[in-house]
Write a structure and sequence with these properties.
There is one protein chain. A 3-stranded mixed sheet has the order 1-3-2. It starts with a helix and ends with a helix. About 70% of the residues lie in helices and about 5% in strands. By secondary structure, it is mostly helical. The chain is elongated and about 65 Å long. Bound molecules: zinc ion. Zinc ion (ZN) binds near residues 102, 106, 172 and 175.
């Protein structure tokens, strides 16, 4: 993604996004590594926590599946199913129940017809198209230079991507809010375990903030480049 931009003017616009992204990744892995070693008091697994939350929310038939990979946990709104990575599916750590509850939080949003989740889902196809289109534009730009026309297209693409990442923020923060609410309401996590769960979920959310900042700064770079071209 960055390759075509490094050689362009305002390349330094990318630096804060890259630094924040690195920081967010480091913060997430150190926080996750810490709290995936601390067992929760009730000794329940992520899968069990998710199951209890879904059952309590009137979603007893929603499957909780195990999926390969590290931190690949997600809710699939098309399949209406939860997918938890093996370590969170089987794990009985604070991190495991926190992440599992967060994914269940997305299912609760779906059930409650949470506006931002629906907006985000509606934007998925156009965002996928924009990401693919950018790959073509970036390659063209690298070989031919960013013409005013390519810059215009890049601005449209990055506006779409930034909007998508902006809409993702309330979805992610609200899923964590719902997760914590249910964990404590159902007594899955004790009061003294609250800070640990919050830290894991906040660290995960920071990666979404970093992604937005990175995209917004790239958009700004293209806008500045286009402005300069207009003047010359
Ligand atoms: Zn999420």
């Amino acid at each position: 993604m960055m390759l075509g931009l490094i050689i362009a003017d305002y390349w330094w616009f990318a630096i804060p996004g890259i630094l924040l992204g690195l920081y967010a990744q480091m913060k997430l892995s150190s926080t996750y590594n810490k709290y995936c070693r601390i067992g929760n008091a009730r000794n329940i697994s992520g899968a069990e926590a998710a199951r209890e939350i879904l059952d309590a929310a009137g979603l007893p038939s929603m499957p909780v599946n195990e999926v390969g990979g590290h931190l690949t946990d997600h809710y699939d709104p098309m399949k209406k199913a939860l997918f938890l990575s093996s370590e969170n599916y089987h794990g009985t750590s604070l991190a495991a129940v926190g992440v599992a509850a967060h994914e269940a939080g997305h299912a609760l949003q779906h059930r409650a017809s949470y506006t931002w989740l629906h907006l985000r889902m509606a934007m998925v196809p156009i965002t996928q198209f924009a990401s693919m289109a950018w790959m073509g534009i970036a390659v063209l730009g690298m070989f031919m230079g960013m013409s005013p026309k390519l810059l215009g297209i890049a601005i449209v693409i990055f506006t779409v991507l930034a909007l998508f990442q902006l809409i993702t923020l309330p979805v992610e923060y609200d899923a964590s809010r719902r997760a914590k609410e249910q964990l404590f309401r159902l007594g899955l996590v004790r009061e003294d375990e609250r800070p640990g769960v919050s830290k894991v979920l906040n660290a995960a959310a920071l990666t979404y903030v970093a992604a937005l900042v990175t995209t917004a700064l790239q958009l700004l770079q293209f806008i500045m480049l286009a402005r300069d071209r207009d003047r010359s």
